[in-house]
Structures are given as C-alpha cells and as structure tokens.
Amino acid sequence: MRQKLALLDLPIELLQECILYLSLVDLIACRNTGNRVLRKLLAGSVAIQYKMHQERAGVNENPNSREIRGLTTSERLVSLLARERNWFDITPLNGRGYRLKMPDPEGAWLYKLLPDGILIVDGQVPNSLPGHCTSVKYTPLALSGGLARSQSEPTPIAVETNLEPWTTLFSGKQIVGLATYPGEELVAVATSTPPSTHSSLFSLDIHLIEMPMGRPHSNATESILNLACSSIHYLESLAQIEIVGSTLAVALEFEIVPGPQTDLRHLSLKQELHIMNWKSGRSLIKPFDCGSIAPVFLRPDVVMIPHAGLNQLQVFRLDLDCDEPASLDRYNTNFVSFALPSLASGVSIVRDSFKSYSAPPPQQEPRPVSGVQEPFSSRADTCLVNCHYQTFQTRTDFYDDDEDNVHWHEFTEVTDHCFVVRRASLLDIFSSSVVRARDLVVAWERWGPGCLRFLDFAAGQGAGQRLIGLAPRARGDYSHGRYLQILDFNPWNHKKPVPDSDSDSKSSNRSRLVGEKGACLASFSAFTSPPMSSTLPYTEVTSAQAYDFDEVRLSDSCILGLRKHGELGGIREIHILHLG
C-alpha cells in the first residue's frame, strides 16, 4: 500500500515556500505548536524572518527601489530592521534635515508630498484673503542614500543639475482643492467659478493633470470634470478630493441663501458629495448633503465621511459598475452610521470643522509606483484614519467692578479635538452590519472603544500606523523649538506589559506605552457625556532634540517640518527629516 505523504515530509525548500503564504498570526501559531521541524525552519529561514518582520512593521517591499535592488534577502532584512530603529528612535539619516524654500515670497498654502517630489499651491491672488491662490508647482526630490547608502543627503534633483527648481503644472482660476494619486501619475486640481448675473449656478472644475509634464491626463476621456451646483449666492467654496484607482470623490462646501430676497445675514452652509469615475467622467452616485467635506476611502468601494450635524461617521458602499448614479440615504442597507460619543449638554460641533486624512490610500490593484525610491512602504490594510474637528459651547463669566457691582458676559469657547480610527477594524464592523441589514446606526459603545482613540493633542497628518505632533511645552518654557512626538499604533511594537490606565503609563527613555485600559480620559469629560473610554493602545516616542517647526507631518519615509509666515501666513520652508 502506498504511504501518504505528510506536509512535514516535504523537502525543506518546498515546505518553506508553503509557509511563506501564511500570515504573521499563522506563523506564530506554527511556532507555538512545539513541532521541532517547524520551529527549526522558522528560526533558520531568512526568507521567513524577512516576511515576519515586514508584517510586524506593517510594510511592503517596493520592487522598484534601487536601494534594495540586487541585495540578498539577508541584506534586505538588515535594511528593514535599520529603518524601524530609525523610526523608533527618531534618528534622521540626514542629521538636522534638508531645507526646501518656497519659490513665492508669500509662501505656499497647500502641499502634497509625492513618492518622488513635492507639490505646492501658491500664487496669492492680490488683495484677497490669505490662501486664495492660482498655481500648482512641482519639484522632484531625490532622497538618495536611504538605508543602503546612509551617508548621502536628500537633495532636489533640479538643484543638482542647475535647472529651475520648480515646474508650474497649473495656473489659472482660484484653486479650492488639490489631490494626487501616484499610482496613475495623477494630480487633480479643483477651481471654482461663482454664479454670474445671468445664472444662479456655481460651478467647480476638476482639472486632471498627468505628472510630471503637467499635460492633460492621457487616461481621462475629459481632461476637465465640471460640477454645477444650484446656488443663489456664493461667498466661499472649498473642496476636498480623494482618489483611489479610477474613482474620485469630491466634497464641496459653499454658502447659499434660501431665496433671492433673503438677507445675506441668513446664509446657509451647504456641503455636497460627488463621486465619479474620473477616467470616463461617469457619476457613481447622485450628489447628497453629506454633513462635512472630509471623505476618506476605507476600501476602493467603501467611503467614510463624518456628519457634524448628526455626530456620526457615515460609511457606505459604492457600486463601481453601476449604469446609473445610485441614490444614497441613511435608510439604505449599504449605508451604516457609527455614532460618536454623546456630547455634553450645551456642546455642539462646528459644522465646517471636520477634516479627515489617511495614507496610503487603499489600492484597487496594488502596483509599483514609478519614481519611488524608498525600499519599503506602509501597507494600506494597516492604516489609520486621522480626524480633526471642533466643538463649541457658550459660557458665562462673572466679575466684580471697583464698586462691588457684579457683571456678567457670555462668550463662546471653541475646543479642538483629534481622534484616530483603525481602517480595518471599522471595515469589519461595517461589513457585519451590512450583512445583518438592521444595524443602520451602530451605538458608540458597540464599536468606538475598540477601534477609535481620542488624543490629548492635535496630531498632524500621519502615514501608515504612525502619527506625529509637537510635544506640549512645559510650563514656563519659552525657548525656541519643541520636541517631536510620534504615536505608533502598530500592535506588534507594544512590547512592554500594557499598564492599567493612561495615568500610569510606563516610560522607558524617550518612549512610553499608553495603555489599552485608558478608561475615562479626564481631558475629554468636558465635552462628552459620559466620559469616553478606549482600548486602542499606542507607543509614544519623543525625539532627543527639539526642532523649530510650526507644524509637522509624516510621509512613509520622512518627517516634514513646516515653518510659516506667522500663525495665519503661508508656508515659507519645508524641512525634510529622512528616516527611510
């Protein structure tokens, strides 16, 4: 009788190839079985160790990177471990960083960091409000050196070759929104046109531009997408654009008056969401009042947008192959609302204050991006969604004058709030709610504590599972510069025992673990009722040196420090700290 062949009887090379398909959790389970063959293979295989460390770090290898092309698996593993050490210690490869000055003396007002360059919006309109700009410019950045050659410093390619450092990609009407999608070499620029005396329609044009030449995008049927919105009065418009694959979402904010005879003091703020296929120009949904201009893709076919008026995060699924635009409303079974913590009495959300950010975007079909030089990039399925908003409440202040008469006055107190959501966790709850087709509003207690965390300070835009911010100053500290703080939500980096609460978080050198049993956060009890709790831990790392930055942002490979022309002015310099 022919003996059956067991899995562990396979040649060690074949067994390794089989095991490489397993997830990190499965690999750990294999190790914990106690089987000597598996334990020896897991400990001795560099390929398996490399895969495990990639999953632990939440990154993918970039096959286009020149930094690791030609390296052995063992050398790639060394590069990955060095990268993670740099991030955990906040140790830039280029020392104090590289300074990139803005070409316009007035500064830049928007910017986007691409894998191989930087986009900015500048060209201030004369005699207009700050931030009203008309041009988009680009400069390539060669972050040469990376992990394999750490002695080099990042330098703009154009400076090396004595060419003009900045290329103008767009110049025209006032710009109200900007987005990029490196996978298609796409830049989307939104410009607005107010209603004329002959029309009550305000229109917004989205210009689809191909990098790096600045020409109309070759994959778009129409190089300009036009959106017309009914509006009798127009003062100001803003647009937030998000792109994944061939799908483009744009949320608009503009002010209208209900009728032609209405007093301009009674303006109504309107926020409207449009979603379309940018390649064909076909609309995927009928526009609807969305409650904020902060859409984020959780998946190529799933969108999240906060609704300030309802104090909710609303998530819905798209039919990317529909023939006619779909109607979406809160009673649709593909539309699920997630309640945020109940507000305390007298507290309201500032309707136009919501901002959301998540990077990298989910990919429709993962593909290498041309021009990327970094060896590793964050996996989209591990990313966070970072949200900011404001609340306000009216307070009364009493005081005595010199004659002991009591006076009082009312004032409005505005407070900033910041929270993060695990993209994958929210998707799991959304999918289960859609299957049950009855949980159209999910209570905060059922979803929030496990996949959302409010933060004690306003973290800047992050990348992957990391956020960054400027550490609060100590009382009486008036020195220049502040320390950087990185918040790492990667669960595999929480190596120390989790403390019982936030108040007794254990510190080690410049890092501390903020525990998963951080029950009632005192700093938020004034605006939620009851005080919120969270079981989402993170590691907080503080830099060894202070930096004179006004704001900070993260990319997959860099810390970006912004220096501005005053509190309300444009960006005058971007400092790049390259960590790999």
Fold and architecture overview:
The relative contact order is 0.12. Mean pLDDT is 78; it is low at 145-164 and 496-508. The N and C termini lie far apart (58 Å). The protein is mostly beta strands and 580 residues long. 14% of the residues lie in helices and 38% in strands. The longest helix is centred in the first third of the chain and has 17 residues, at 73-89. The radius of gyration is 26 Å and the shape is globular. A hairpin with a 2-residue loop joins strand 17 (296-299) and strand 18 (302-307). It contains eight helices and 36 strands. The strands form eight sheets. A six-stranded antiparallel beta sheet has the order 28-29-30-33-32-31, with no helix packed on it. Strands 3, 4, 5, 6 and 7 form a five-stranded antiparallel beta sheet that branches.
Write the SSE topology.
Blueprint: H1 12-19, H2 24-32, H3 36-44, H4 46-57, E1 59-61, H5 73-89, E2 98-101, E3 110-114, E4 117-124, E5 133-142, E6 155-156, H6 157-160, E7 167-171, E8 175-181, E9 186-193, E10 201-210, E11 215-216, E12 224-230, E13 237-244, E14 247-256, E15 268-277, E16 288-289, E17 296-299, E18 302-307, E19 312-317, E20 335-339, E21 348-349, E22 355-357, E23 376-378, E24 384-400, E25 406-422, H7 423-436, E26 441-442, H8 444-451, E27 452-454, E28 460-463, E29 466-470, E30 482-488, E31 507-508, E32 511-514, E33 538-547, E34 551-554, E35 558-564, E36 571-578
Parallel strand pairs: 20-26
Antiparallel strand pairs: 1-23, 2-36, 3-4, 4-5, 5-6, 5-7, 8-9, 9-10, 10-11, 10-12, 13-14, 14-15, 15-16, 17-18, 18-19, 19-20, 21-24, 22-24, 24-25, 25-27, 28-29, 29-30, 30-33, 31-32, 32-33, 34-35, 35-36
Helix pairs in contact: 4-5
Organism: Mycena indigotica
Protein name: F-box domain-containing protein
